[in-house]
Design goal:
Protein name: ABC-2 type transporter
Number of helices: 11
Order of helices and strands: HHHHHHHHHHH
Largest sheet: none
Radius of gyration: 19 Å
Keywords: Membrane, Transmembrane, Transmembrane helix
Number of strands: 0
Pfam families: ABC2_membrane_6 (PF06182)
InterPro entries: ABC-2_transporter-like (IPR010390)
Shape: globular
Low-confidence stretches: none
Distance between the termini: 33 Å
Organism: Lactobacillus iners DSM 13335
């Protein structure tokens, strides 16, 4: 019952904020749709004559809509929390979160929902389902896509969480969030277009290319189930690393009160 009340309160507050800033939210939604359409249009031109990097046009569209869906899952649940958390850390206003009888790691980022992102998410998921249906991937293909979607959204969360946590020690890291956003955007491409060293780094060290390319490769090219296991291990390691840094950061935190 207590959890239900918390969820209900978060949802109500988020809806109220959405209604207050609905004009801005509408513009944000429209711009996101425009950028998505541009990506699909560019892909349509790029793959108009033949396959490129052993990818078909439809597989490329699956990659684009997959990464958009994962990004909007992260945005819906955590992007506002991360933006607010950086300010709370730097301004010494984290006290209220720390005294609550819940784990501050999650409470500090999970009390706001970005309502506009749910509309972009529905659009992206709808297009993803459409392109998958064109390939007749079957139930296993949809299951692979769902598992990778959750893992990728979690990876985006963890990369941003690590960036936020560094604010306990270093000021002025807001540009780092833009770098992570750009990194995710650049990863929304077939990895074969990048030099081999870039492929290796962003597959096995910072696995954004692994996240974006793996579901398509598993369904259409190679099964690569061992890479799926590696992806899961990386997410787990990043999660516990982020928790460790968070706990150390709290000890380093200085209150403004």
């Amino acid at each position: 019952m207590r959890i239900q009340k918390i969820i209900s309160s978060i949802w109500k507050q988020s809806i109220e904020e959405f209604l207050i800033y609905r004009a801005t939210s509408l513009i944000t939604f429209i711009l996101a749709v425009v950028f998505l359409l541009i990506e699909l249009f560019v892909g349509d031109i790029y793959f108009s004559n033949s396959e490129n990097a052993n990818w078909t046009r439809n597989q490329y569209f699956i990659l684009i809509t997959f990464m958009n869906s994962a990004t909007y899952i992260y945005n819906f649940f955590f992007v506002i929390g991360h933006e607010n958390l950086v300010e709370d850390i730097l301004e010494g206003e984290l006290d209220y979160n720390l005294i609550r009888p819940v784990y501050s790691y999650w409470y500090s980022i999970g009390t706001h929902l970005d309502i506009p992102s749910i509309f972009n998410l529905i659009l992206s998921l709808g297009l993803l389902g459409y392109y998958l249906a064109l390939e007749n991937v079957g139930i296993i293909g949809y299951a692979i896509m769902l598992i990778n979607l959750i893992l990728t959204a979690f990876l985006i969360f963890l990369l941003n969480q690590l960036a936020v946590t560094l604010s306990f020690w270093v000021d002025g890291l807001t540009s780092l969030f833009g770098m992570i956003e750009d990194l995710i955007s650049y990863a929304s491409r077939p990895k074969q277009i990048f030099p081999m060293i870039i492929q290796q780094i962003f597959t096995f060290v910072i696995p954004v290319l692994l996240a974006s390319n793996l579901p398509v490769e598993m369904i259409f090219h190679k099964h690569n189930y061992w890479l799926l296991g590696y992806f899961i291990i990386i997410d787990i390691l990043l999660y516990y690393t982020s928790k460790l840094l968070w706990n150390k950061g709290i000890k380093h935190y200085s209150s403004a009160n």
